[in-house]
Amino acid sequence: MNPAHETEQELDPELAALLASAEDELPAPGASEDVDAMLKGVRGQIAEARKSPLQRIREQPTWRRRALGVATLLFLVGLSVGAKHPNAAAYPKGYLALYVASIATLVLVCAFAALRPLHRPTLSRPLGVGLGLLAFLATVVLAVAPGFHDHMSRAPEGLSLFAHASPCFVYGFLVGVPVYAVLRILDRGNPLGRVLAASAAGLTGNLVLEMHCMVGGADHLLLGHAGMVGFYVLGVLALEWALRPRS
Amino acid sequence: MQEQSDEELMRAYVDGDERAFEELFRRYAPIVLGMVRRALRDDDLAREITQHTFFRLHGARADFHQGSRVRPWLLTIAMNLVREHWRRQKRRPHVDVDLDTRAAPTAERSPLEMEQRSAAVHAALAKLPASQREVVELHYFEERPYKEVADILGTSEGAVRVRAHRAYTTLKALLAEAMR
Å from B56 to nearest chain A CA? Predict the structure, then answer.
């Protein structure tokens, strides 16, 4: 029983007595020999983890892990800007700023959520998955929204959709790989870490493609640019579903 | 010598004092174990999650700052692991227990009756939605105030009070049903 506990005053006495019967079943705190055995087990886990360089990176403070993640994103996007891709120069400035701000905000939210410290309550699964789907949806909407891609040229005549969209798909995917890898390396065990890292990776690839690729047309943008984000997000969700424990 | 507070021990551990970790473990492992055992009804799994909770505490120690408190940290980590287990498992074991409602007053109850009552409570707890069950676990069993329960679960104090009210009302109805 918890005689001094506020619950006792609020609860029906009969219910309080019943709940206490579940409490009484527990072994006396600290009396169990379990504690020594468990402590030995934890020390073994810690000793093992100390051998791993990855674990040492994960043990960095959260602000430093997040800074590393953001630095990776900035490096990749910076590479793209530094390469002076033609579309970035031709893009109407207002639309470019809106595109970059939308995607960059989503990337940062996903990356920060993926690196959320474990002493904070985990985000709910619907929220994490919803964030991934929002990332995909945002790129779909931006692909078909008027004004963003009017300055772009059409794909060459006679070239199939697959032929002109697949190089973009592969390029964006490859840009996302280091983002995914870095976020997973920095992740301390967030159950939503994979889907959030995949979302950030896909969005980064999409942002770089947006500055790099001059081919407009909704079909190209949906398959080659937004489709790649969907592949990341839905692919990870499908993989998690396929590998879920079955008991 | 005056006993060190949890926070002093944690800061000592962050600075590399291994004995401080052991002391924290001895203080909190039984509490975490009890909480997880009640939530999962599986001794081996409860031990595993308790160990993992402290392993994660070790991994997150660099985030421990002035003003942080050890107990909410540990309970949050443990509750996150329990939630993750619930999510993976989806279906939790269902226990049905017949209980004699005309049982004798507490002082006169036999161990068998006490065991039955305990099983009935666990069966009723298992029927609560996870969001309500974790509130009962932290508020009633761990004696945490509503404010701290809200911090641990990442929600508002008002939402916790509503969940607690619903949970206790449902528990009362379920237990009355079980004892009829």
Answer: 8
CB spacing of B51 vs A14 below 8 angstroms: no
Per-residue three-class SS string for chain A: CCCCCHHHHHCCHHHHHHHHHHHHCCCCCCCCCHHHHHHHHHHHHHHHHHCCHHHHHHCCCHHHHHHHHHHHHHHHHHHHHHCCCHHHHHCCHHHHHHHHHHHHHHHHHHHHHHCCCCCCCCCCHHHHHHHHHHHHHHHHHHHHCCCCCCCCECCCCCCCHHHHHHHHHHHHHHHHHHHHHHHHHHCCCCCCHHHHHHHHHHHHHHHHHHHHCCECCHHHHHHHHHHHHHHHHHHHHHHHHHCCCCC
Is ipTM > 0.85 here? no
Whether this model's pTM surpasses 0.90: no
Per-window interface: B 27-46 vs A, CB < 8 A: 29-31, 33-34, 37-38
Which of A:163-182 have CB within 8 Å of B? none
* Residues of chain A contacting residue B42, judged by C-beta atoms under 8 Å apart: none
B154–A23: do the CB atoms touch at under 8 Å?
no
- Tens-digit pLDDT string for chain A (247 aa): 443 444 434 666 677 777 776 664 555 444 556 788 899 999 999 999 989 999 889 999 999 999 999 998 888 877 766 666 667 677 788 888 899 899 999 999 999 999 999 888 888 889 999 999 999 999 999 998 887 887 777 777 778 888 888 999 999 999 999 999 999 999 998 989 999 999 999 999 999 888 888 888 888 999 999 999 999 999 999 998 888 766 5
Count CB pairs under 8 A between chains A and B.
Answer: 140
Residue A188 in contact with partner chain B when CB distance is under 8 A: yes
**Cross-chain Cβ contact B30/A30 below 8 Å:** yes
